[in-house]
Amino acid sequence: MSTKVMDCATCGQSFSSRNQLFKHLKELGHGVQTADGNNKSAADNSDKASITERGNEAYYKYYLQQKIINTEDTDAANEQLWKDVYDNLRSPLPITYRIQESSWVGGDFSANLLSLVAKDELQNWSMGGEDGAPKIRITMTKECHHFNRSRNENSNRDNKLSSILHALQELGATYRQELVSAIPPLVLWSCGSNEKDERKEFIVDLCAAPGSKSLQLLDLLHSMNEKGGDANDIPNGLLVVNDSDRHRIITLCQRSRRVPRGPMLAINMDARYFPGIRRKSGYKQKYDKVLADVPCSGDGTSRKNKNVWNEWSIPQAMSLHKLQRKILRRGLELLRPGGLIVYSTCSLNPLENEAVVSSVIDDVGGTDKVKIVPLPPWLTTKFKAMKGLSTWLVPTSKYGKANKEEDVAFDMYECYADVPAKLKSGKITPSMFPVVSDLELKSQLQHCARFVPLKDSIDSGGFFVACLIRLKVGELGEKPKTDKKKSDDETKTDVSEPVKRARVSDDAQIQTVIETDASKAVSPTNELLREGDWICEVCYKLNFGRRDSRTCIGCKKRKPKTIDTEEKVKREPLLKAPCNKNELDPFLDFFGISSSNSTFQNVRIIHRKRERTFVLVSAPVAALSISEQWGAFREAGISLITMPTIPSGEEESENPKHTDITTLFDEAVPLLALHAKKRHINISTISFQKALAQSIFEDLKKETAETERIKTTIDIPLTPLCGNGPWYESHEIATEPGVFIVSCACPLKGDVGRFSFWCRRHTDGNVTTETSSRVLAAMLVVVHTYLEVTPAEGERNNLKWMGVDDTQFFNV
Questions:
Q1: Which band of pLDDT confidence, cut at 50, 70 and 90, is reported for residue 569?
Q2: Largest Cα–Cα separation, the chain
Q3: How far apart (Å, rounded) are the C-alpha atoms in residues 58 and 395?
Q4: pLDDT in tens, 96-149
Q5: Burial class of 722 by CB neighbour count within 10 A (0 to 12, 13 to 18, 19+)
Q6: What is the rounded CA–CA span in Å between residue 694 and residue 725?
Q7: Complete edge-to-edge strand list for the sheet that includes strand 14-15
Q8: What is the dihedral of CA 747, 748, 752, 758, to 10 degrees?
Q9: Rounded Cα distance, 219 and 104, in Å
Q10: What is the pLDDT of residues 542-556, one digit of tens each?
Q11: Cα(146)–Cα(757) distance, rounded to whole angstroms?
Q12: Using CA atoms, how far apart are residues 126 and 797, in angstroms rounded to an integer?
């Protein structure tokens, strides 16, 4: 019985199963061609006549009315330009990778290796380099986003370029990032002072996940070391990455482990109520730069997300407007005077962009307190960015939808006074309209930029970027509310009835006001209170215990002294400084690292019940006052090792058990390989490849999710590379059991790629590789590709370039 074959009319791929075909159509939105030659389209089954396979009539008309294409040409020319942009937004998005310059592998090595492998298959982009801005290298493939099936069973496993790109990303050398997504961090870094090497940088990323911009900010922080030393040294800066979603921040932490992240502190909080972190000196930490890449409708991502055309609607943008305003307001409060904040979205909608920026500036006191900064001319000129809108229209929530008479509504309003009374109580608010009273603010809105895909400009999606500077010292103002329906006297509530209402204070922390009869005692165990909270006896306001203040936030009345408040719980710091004699010195001595090594001056210890985790952080991170009880904390710095906890009262001996390393973290191996003089061996690239192949071959025998993923991604035959006998038998490895590091160097065009993994020698003499199988597989792909594309002479001179012999090992 013959199998009926069905082909995709768009890409020509054949499928023997209807399930496989429909899965293909659902993921890519292609047309269908059956065996009898009849063509179908994925859009044929849609019940929305205005929505095509890639397109939306309401989407097109809405942005045409908003006039987001605002060049100095005629209206007819701008309309034609918008048609071109719209056609580009319907086309697939090319896949782009950003070179991580500060990666352990090496940015120059990665770029040179890709140029040898790709030849003419890659298009190289660069941003920055002008006016003191750092240069960012981005490589663009000819493969499009919608047609990428690298993890599908039908993917092209013989594609060497795809394999090396995925391997380099696994090692942290490259990161898959859209071209316009790299603009906000670059703007944040470029605007303001150019003397980055002479001062610290305190940065916070309010909505960090999934992490592409956070890793780029880490890369930019390391660029401060270019004039002062090795790019892999720990920069004297601070980067706080935050996200409200716990799973997304965990994913970000996992991705950041591939790169040097000493300045990074990851927390899990709602960005609207981002906490005020204090330093050990007692002062609240203020930031030089804040990145607010806020949640948005994402209608500028249509080139990589085809669901935009089906799901686009005005209510989605309206529902996010209030959230975006609060996040931007909180970001401004975190800045020091003269600090910068970049507000960005992947949306083209002015309700999520100019309306948010202008209304927040108006609320905090106008352009006297916050000013919009022009973006660098080299950026706006190169990418032909559209100026921000000074006027825009606000639609109804029914925009683009048919009513009962089957007429499509396209109603828009110029000012809040034109809105019908029945709609004012809904989703339309005054903050969505332009601020007509402030002419200076209206002119400054043109400093914002909207990036759209234009011919011969930027082959990417849509993005909005605005850069703001906080000018004055002091608390930001609060715009008086003039649209109250009742007067103050009418809104007063009888104190005999408990009333609970929430308001946002100047520091953006939610304060709950409880008005109650003074004669009624409020129990500390009331469900409205948490441990440490207290209610003022004068104004009856709830004061959060985390404020750690002795006065009321409202009336400044002193906190009553009770038994509960006098017995203050002692909060232990999370990042504790190690005792050099008993803790830090044994660790450094184990790897032959001098105690005077400046790189390890800010090692901190996180104590658990049975073990201690050594982490390496930057000086500003070490200066923060972080409590063990702080539930928002996720990770900080580079995790080095874990050791058993020192028993209380244990006397120091020559070989105490608490100096035994329980675990050596994969992220610490490249750093230790740069400094370790003991427990570290350098071998040739050929021997390193053999060690990787044998280790992966043994790991593949295990049935785990990680090994199953490796089987579907690695395309290198392992058996010929394994050779005869264990790889470590040909080397004089020290006989003392314990962990040790294995490294190799790959010189290429004047730069070098560094690769390392860690092993453990057991008491029976066997050696097991402890590094993650995914990391080993990625290193094998890169090293194997390097040996294929470089001349044989390069490998023979490899060890001579390193200055070590193949059998030279450091003593234990």
A1: low
A2: 90
A3: 12
A4: 999 999 999 999 999 999 988 887 778 887 777 666 677 788 888 766 654 344
A5: buried
A6: 9
A7: 14-15, 6-8, 32-33, 39-40
A8: -60
A9: 11
A10: 776 655 677 887 777
A11: 35
A12: 32
The reply to whether the predicted model has a pTM over 0.90 is: no
Identify the CA nearest to 210 among candidates 178, 243, 183. Answer: 243
Selection from 69, 89, 68, 79 nearest residue 298 by Cα: 89
8-state DSSP, 166 = H
Query: Contact at 8 Å (CB) between 353 and 325?
Result: no
- Cα–Cα distances (Å) from 193 to 169, 197, 289, 344, in that order, read 32, 10, 11, 21
One-letter-per-residue 3-state SS of 415-456? CHHHCCHHHHCCCCCHHHCCCCCCHHHHHHHHHCEEECCECC
Chain length of the chain: 812
Query: What are φ and ψ of residue 511, in 5° steps?
Result: -115, 130
Residue carrying structure tokens 């396979």:
53
Q: Which two tokens stand for residue 225?
A: 């070391």
What pLDDT digit, counting tens, does each position of 380-426 carry? 998 999 999 999 999 988 888 766 555 667 889 999 998 888 888 77
d(CA 171, CA 589): 28
Rg, Å, the chain Cα set? 30
First to last CA, the chain: 69
Please identify which residue in the block is written with the tokens 């790889």: 727
Rounding to the nearest 10 degrees, give the CA dihedral for residues 419, 313, 303, 256: 90
Structure tokens at 61: 């008309």
- Dig out the tokens for 142 from the structure: 């000819």
Alpha helix stretches (DSSP H) within 262-386: 307-311, 314-334, 354-364, 377-382
Cβ proximity of 701 and 722 under 8 Å: no
- Give 667's pLDDT tier (boundaries 50, 70, 90): very high
**Across the strands, what pairs with 344?**
293, 465
**Tens digit of pLDDT for each residue in 762-812?**
888 889 999 999 999 999 999 999 999 887 544 444 444 444 444 333 333
Reading the block at residue 781, the tokens are 């792909």
